[in-house]
Amino acid sequence: MDYSKRVSIILKKIPSRGKEVIGRRFGLSKNGKRETLEAIGESYNLTRERVRQIEREGISLVKKQEIGDIFSQFEKAITTFGGIKKEDLLISFLGKGGFYNEIFFFLSLNDNLKRNLENKFSYSFWSVKKTESENHLKFINKAIEYLKKTKEPLFIEELYNNLNIKNITLPVFQSYIEVSKQIQKNHKGKIGLKDWVEINPRGIKDKAYLVLKEAEKPLHFSEVATLIKNSSFFSSPSIHTATVHNELIKNEKFVLVGRGLYALKEWGYEPGVVKEIITKVLNVAKSPLSKEEILEEVLKKRMVKRHTVLLNLQDKNRFQKDNQGRYIIKEA
Known about the structure:
Arc Repressor Mutant, subunit A, 5 domains, three-stranded antiparallel β-sheet, mainly alpha
């Protein structure tokens, strides 16, 4: 439907002053800018209340015209989404990406619909008055509690299935979730809680963490910097390699596991020189270990050559062999 054409036809039947006020209030003029009552009043040398009165009179005349087909279409669309729909997504759906102000104008005219204003927890959304309820809050809270437990972003389909929801469809569940500010989507299309690093990375530290987590292997700090630079999601074209390196060095989430190579501590890697890692391995074992057993455990925690580990084992001031050739920590 050409909503712009319908608006032009409707406004032709409105007195010029009312037509101008409505056009400016809803951004229906050429510049597409919505204006306040005060701004319009100043240009006409009228009070704010007088402009509001002119607007009301014009709206009253508009509602007397044949626009029931548009109202029915909008109500049907919102009902399909479970009775509520986030404002920008609803308008995009109705206008297929266009006619934003015109659609908002018609939505505002419909007495069967309610615009719910944005607040701390929700984005602006529209609802059908006769089916209005707070049913969506129940599902939003259920999703939030589940995400807090899993601590991992999920695709909306996964979340819907994991919650074992039976009484509403997936599109309706998605419509409810989209209204919430507490649940957001990341660049991969997965949803999670807004304060999660995987959802809203805020600094170099968070971005480096995500790059490594997605790589699922240790990377050189220069590779980490390059991946951050080349990611359109991160929007960090001016990032410096040295800055990334500094963040990796100072943050305990990251572990230096080789020459310039960093891994995530959560993978099991540990900080410290090779000799310290060998010592930790033997302390944890609480019993003598063979050369191969030590190699296996150290290489899980550090990316070094076998030869490096063997060289460190030769430190007779720290390690010694038992009568079976296994290694223990030398007593002080």
